[in-house]
Backbone:
């Protein structure tokens, strides 16, 4: 087989052939054609119905009277006004950029969709220009939390809330006995309500830690109480079933505020991510705290040589079982695990260990909860006066959640400020954006099959408002913190998602390689070992776009939720209850399970992307599944925890998988293969069930055959010299049989005619021979010449 470059130039990235945006699946496939040239559409209609603008941005007639006109897109009007007021230099810059879009230079086959890229880049540029004109800068615009919500201004507490649908508004809470008659708020022309409450006797009128709510009168004359949209902490009475949340005024005195002690670690050249859920990290059937996670789990993560943590379920969510994806309070860390200061302690502790901390960012939708969340501000008003679209456009029927109106000025302020809040206030180092596919398309990926055809990505089905928001978000994040890591959870494989905004890309650093875990589940559930295709495995792992980086993973939290199983449990099932003791010989099921668990995770890491992700507990083969407390399981926490005792018990075999996980990460620490652009597959042999490839300066050999050991097996390599074992899954410390000698030197032999790859062995100019036991993986490194000269001993016999 000819050598194959892993970086496939213009293939869609890990496209799942049937998806509804990662949470439900359907076999029905539809394809949307690019019926409209979007740049032409933009030229024909620069103002589209459905969006509002500040009063000072409305166009006026020559006599100064405001034109009576339907609502228009706020950013279009601002951009049009900008052009009319003589700021032509910026427009000339935009025009120049439009004629030389970087994404087209990277992928010339996108030229057919140049109009689409020009359209979206124009919208991005003009919206950013409008923000700079009316808000000062994108950076100032993203500090909305300094104006909205509760803030100290002089000797007063000032509270502001955007609620244009309200007829009247009051602030209520413990501080005024929940009587707002003397605390009526004033409305400005943009629908922002405000109140200034002076201090009393030198103390804040609203005590720190006291409960507060926003009371407003709706169009039907009813008064309703809501948690402030920008609240920084929210709690619930755990003794009352189904009790509503309360907003908490959070302004601790200096003595009780957490002060960060450690600098942020530098951005790793390749992220090795430990995905974790703080609440379910306890070994006990209970919700763990931020402090407990920092003290007990962070040392485990560091010991396993991860360099990045991705925290799930940080933003407050009233329903624990939503895994944190139905957010109700976007600026508040979940009170189940502690206070905002406790979360800061966790992040600072992680930084002290050299770990970057990413946050699972949910801007794709909002919880449907009316009492506790943003949805409580929607009373059926127009989309211009709401955070969400109206009707079906504003509702995700599969997730039972609300969908943001990304083109709305105040929605952009809220979401962009939300990003900056978590970066500035809590020192997060980046984000993993959840549900990006739902944002990118008006159909949200529901019942749509993505095949890699570019028409599926760039058409009237594309939600350009959402794309522009993501471009603004990535621009902001990388401007305020250049070392940030931002990852997109996109199942569609949209091209340019991982290219810089300056090139008209969307600006993410990485995308999740979401097709990989599906392929492993398919193999484990539906195919015998003898039916596994080496070429199909390679194809799945390497199906990603050139210059758009991916984070690969064999399994995440998605593969462990109730109704499914972890890879270890799929492999070994009930044998994990009785057959994991080292005091007895392993059964064939356990032997196979541990071997394949190591191989699946390692080949995914080594071949699947430029980063790697593992979900908490899967590094040691955590059994069973995840099931949050709910009525159907008697509100049990038994499956909503991590059984660390399994890996800590020395006579159990879980330690072998954990040791190998640690060694995988250590190998990248030493040889930096994940960040290497040298990626060459030299063999994917279906008969032998062997895959051989080079990543960086390492040579990887995976023998998936259930029975065959290969003695004197010849493998190709690039550089001549002496090779030694760098990692061996069959080593005793990994639960193997120690069949491969690590002190044997492997010397290369030249292959073919120099300069003529077709005469080489598997298209490689050199080769050496190894022993390859069944169901094992081996990694070889080339001993540097300087090191070879220092070794004064006879040349060893070649292992056969």
Residues:
């Amino acid at each position: 087989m000819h050598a194959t470059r892993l970086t496939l130039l213009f293939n869609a990235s890990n496209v799942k052939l049937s998806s509804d945006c990662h949470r439900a699946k359907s076999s029905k496939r539809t394809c949307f054609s690019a019926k409209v040239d979007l740049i032409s559409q933009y030229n024909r209609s620069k103002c589209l119905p459905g969006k509002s603008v500040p009063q000072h941005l409305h166009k006026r007639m020559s006599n100064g009277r405001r034109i009576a006109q339907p609502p228009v897109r706020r950013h279009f009007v601002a951009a049009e006004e900008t052009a009319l007021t003589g700021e032509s230099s910026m427009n000339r810059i935009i025009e120049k950029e439009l004629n030389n879009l970087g994404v087209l230079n990277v992928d010339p086959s996108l030229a057919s969709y140049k109009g689409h890229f020009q359209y979206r880049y124009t919208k991005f540029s003009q919206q950013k220009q409008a923000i700079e004109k009316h808000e000062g800068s994108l950076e100032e615009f993203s500090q909305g939390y300094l104006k909205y919500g509760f803030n100290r201004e002089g000797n007063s507490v000032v509270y502001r809330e955007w609620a244009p649908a309200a007829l009247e508004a009051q602030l209520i809470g413990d501080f005024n006995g929940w009587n707002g008659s003397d605390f009526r708020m004033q409305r400005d022309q943009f629908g922002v309500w405000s109140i200034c409450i002076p201090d009393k006797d030198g103390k804040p009128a609203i005590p720190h830690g006291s409960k507060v709510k926003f009371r407003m009168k709706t169009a039907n004359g009813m008064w309703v109480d809501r948690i402030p949209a920008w609240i920084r902490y929210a709690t619930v009475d755990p003794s009352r079933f189904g009790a509503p949340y309360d907003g908490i005024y959070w302004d601790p005195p200096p003595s009780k505020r957490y002060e960060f002690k450690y600098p942020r670690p530098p951005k790793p050249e390749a992220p090795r991510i430990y995905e974790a859920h703080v609440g379910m990290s306890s070994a006990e059937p209970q919700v763990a705290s931020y402090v407990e996670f920092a003290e007990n789990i962070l040392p485990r993560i560091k010991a396993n040589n991860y360099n990045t943590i991705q925290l799930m379920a940080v933003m407050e969510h009233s329903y624990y079982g939503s895994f944190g994806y139905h957010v109700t309070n976007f600026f508040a860390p979940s009170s189940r695990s502690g206070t905002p200061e406790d979360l800061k302690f966790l992040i600072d502790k992680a930084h002290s260990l050299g770990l970057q901390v990413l946050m699972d960012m949910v801007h794709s939708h909002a919880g449907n909860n009316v009492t506790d969340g943003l949805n409580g501000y929607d009373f059926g008003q127009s989309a211009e006066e709401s955070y969400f679209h109206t009707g079906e456009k504003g509702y995700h029927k599969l997730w039972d959640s609300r969908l943001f109106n990304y083109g709305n000025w105040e929605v952009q302020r809220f979401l962009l400020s939300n990003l900056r809040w978590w970066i500035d206030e809590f020192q997060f180092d980046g984000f993993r954006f959840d549900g990006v596919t739902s944002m990118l398309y008006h159909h949200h990926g529901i019942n749509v099959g993505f095949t890699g055809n570019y028409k599926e990505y760039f058409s009237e089905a594309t939600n350009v408002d959402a794309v522009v928001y993501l471009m603004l978000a990535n621009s902001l994040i990388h401007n305020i913190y250049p070392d940030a890591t931002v990852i997109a959870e996109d199942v569609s494989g949209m091209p340019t998602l991982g290219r810089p905004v300056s090139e008209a890309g969307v600006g993410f650093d990485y995308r999740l390689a979401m097709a990989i875990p599906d392929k492993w589940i398919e193999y484990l559930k539906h195919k015998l070992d003898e039916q596994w295709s080496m070429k199909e495995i390679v194809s799945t792992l390497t199906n990603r776009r050139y210059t758009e980086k991916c984070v690969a993973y064999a399994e995440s939290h998605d593969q462990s939720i109730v109704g499914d199983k972890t890879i270890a449990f799929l492999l070994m099932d009930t044998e994990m209850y009785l057959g994991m003791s080292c005091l007895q010989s392993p059964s064939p099921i356990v032997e196979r399970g541990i071997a394949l668990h190591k191989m699946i995770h390692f080949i995914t890491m080594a071949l699947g992307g430029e980063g790697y992700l593992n979900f908490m507990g899967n590094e040691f083969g955590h059994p069973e599944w995840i099931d949050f407390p709910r009525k159907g399981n008697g509100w049990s926490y038994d499956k909503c925890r991590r059984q660390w005792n399994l890996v800590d018990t020395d006579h159990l075999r879980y330690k072998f998988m954990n040791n190998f996980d640690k060694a995988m990460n250590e190998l990248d620490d030493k040889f930096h293969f994940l960040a290497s652009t040298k990626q060459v597959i030299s063999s994917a042999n279906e008969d032998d069930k062997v895959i051989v490839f080079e990543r960086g300066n390492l040579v990887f050999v995976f023998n998936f055959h259930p029975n065959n050991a290969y003695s004197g097996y010849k493998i190709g390599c690039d550089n001549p010299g002496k090779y030694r074992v760098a990692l061996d899954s069959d080593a005793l410390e990994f639960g193997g049989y120690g069949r491969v000698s690590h002190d044997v030197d492997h010397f290369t032999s030249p292959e073919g005619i120099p300069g003529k790859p077709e005469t080489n062995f598997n298209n490689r100019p050199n080769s050496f021979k190894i022993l390859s036991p069944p169901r094992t993986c081996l990694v070889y490194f080339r001993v540097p010449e300087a090191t070879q000269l220092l070794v004064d001993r006879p040349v060893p016999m070649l292992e056969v």
